[in-house]
Each structure stands twice: as structure tokens, then as C-alpha cells.
Amino acid sequence: MLAVSLVGCSAWGFILLSSVSSATALNDDGLSLLALKSAISVDPTRALHSWLESDHEPCGWSGVACRGGRVTAVSLSNLSLEGYLPSEMSLLSALENSIGLITGLIALDLSYNNLSGPVPVAIGGLTSLVHLDLSSNYLDGPLPLSIAAFCNLAGVLNLSYNAFSGEIPPEYGNLPVVVSLDLRHNRLTGEIP
């Protein structure tokens, strides 16, 4: 019955139906990144222009690296992007793939942009992160406690040159020794625990 009604539809209706079905083909990683794209109000270099909801996966997108069909790194540094960090970024967290390996986002570099607002609490869902660089933006509010709980961090945790304020949470003292923590040029008080 549906096929008969589609035959009777105008070409416009068929195109609309095709558009809806292709949009649902994008995997969860891609949908998470499209939330980031939607949160970006200014993209002067058109860096996110290749990020299309009609794609099956985001692995061919500019600034995105994948392994086994999952996003493992997002590098959008120094692009003058303006906007905010959406909570949907947490959907890039580790998931078990079909062969039992844990995959997920291990590197996120959004440094040297013009991102503003607080870091969403949901960023704590990115438990696979090894490298996080949000430096040189306009991010504000308190330092997120969830970032200090990342047990896989092994490289850089750079939150410098933002507008974070308040006390440095004691949880930041529990970061592994191998983590290079940079909190310079914020409005933070107290000592690094």
C-alpha cells in the first residue's frame, strides 16, 4: 500500500522521503559531530562544510580520524570557529564494536578557536580520551570535575587561555603523573592539588 501511495505522490514528496531516509543512515558518531557543527555559529574557513548528514559515517570528514568505523580523534584547531560545546559530544564515548574491542574518541583538539560557554558536564562520558586540548578559547565557568576523572589521560590536558573561574578542584590532583596539565591564564584560584 505504501508503494502505491508513493507512486501517486509528487516528485517533491519522493525527494523529501529520500532525504529523511538518508539522514537516518548516519551513525551515532556522525550525529554527535553534527551536533557540534550545529553548535558552531561561525565557520570562516568552511572547515565543517564536508560534514553532511547524508553520509553514512563521518570518517571522511575534515578533521576527523577513525578506526574500525568509529571516530577516534577530532582535530579542529586554529580554525576561528565560534560557538559552544554541545552535550551530545559525549555520545562519542567508548562502545564495544562487533569484535569485542573497545573503541571511542581518544583525542579531542578544539584549541585556538572562539568557543564560549561552559564545558558540558556530559563531556565526562568521553572516558576513552587520552588527549584533550581546549586551550585558547573563551570557555568559562568552573573546571569540570568530570575531566579530572578521565583515567586514560596520558598526554596533554590543556585548558589554558580560557575564562575558567573558581577554585581548582582537588580531583585534579588525582590525574596521572604522565599527564601534562596546563591551566595557565584563567581566573582560577588556589593551587593545583
Automatic annotation (TrEMBL):
Pfam families, A to Z: LRR_1, LRR_8, LRRNT_2
Alphabetically ordered keywords of this record: Leucine-rich repeat, Membrane, Repeat, Signal
Major localization listed first in the record, in broad terms: membrane
Domain Leucine-rich repeat-containing N-terminal plant-type: 26-66
UniProt-listed InterPro entries: Leu-rich_rpt (IPR001611), LRR_dom_sf (IPR032675), LRR_N_plant-typ (IPR013210), PRK1-6/SRF4-like (IPR046959)
A GO cellular-component term linked to this record: membrane
Signal peptide positions (record): 1-25
Compartment(s) where it occurs, according to its Swiss-Prot or TrEMBL record: Membrane
Domain of life: Eukaryota
Protein name: Leucine-rich repeat-containing N-terminal plant-type domain-containing protein
Provenance organism: Vanilla planifolia (Vanilla)
